[in-house]
Amino acid sequence: MYILAQQCAWDAPASPAVGKILHKIAIFSDCNQNILYQLNHSKDADILYTDTWVNIEFMNDPKFKEEKERRFKTFMPYQINATLLKETGSNAKIMHCLPAHIGYEITRDAIDHPNSIIFDQAENRLHAQKSLILFLLGLFD
């Protein structure tokens, strides 16, 4: 079952956090459920996945300051942290595509939490990228 829990205060149209094709497959197969985010939805989740709220190149850009502050204020209630897991009793695995802005979309205690598979996720991505480089260099058998 694919459940998309998203907040509704963002000014962009609601869109799935997965590719459009995968979302269409989920809808077609009747294996999806869209919900507006509420703390208790984390309890039954298998995976809690977050991404950065502000691209790394804009983090210290003075021209982006107001937008950055608006995003932080809007998204802070959706931060993944150990308190969220404890309060909801969630056993969900924690994922983040890195790099992370510690203290914003995710806290250090969530990254280091026993349920975190963030570094395994990063290692898998590293091996996939190494394979791609070998293939592009013509060294892949």
Task: Please name the defining characteristics of this protein.
13% strand; two-stranded parallel ribbon; Rossmann fold; 141 residues; single chain; two-stranded parallel sheet
Task: Provide a descriptive summary of the structure in words.
With 141 residues, this protein is α/β, with parallel strands linked by helices. The protein has one domain: Aspartate/ornithine carbamoyltransferase (Rossmann fold, 3-Layer(aba) Sandwich), CATH 3.40.50. It is 35% helix and 13% strand. The strands form two sheets. The protein has a two-stranded parallel sheet with strand order 1-2. The chain is globular, with a radius of gyration of 17 Å. It starts with a strand and ends in a 5-residue tail after the last helix. The relative contact order is 0.13.
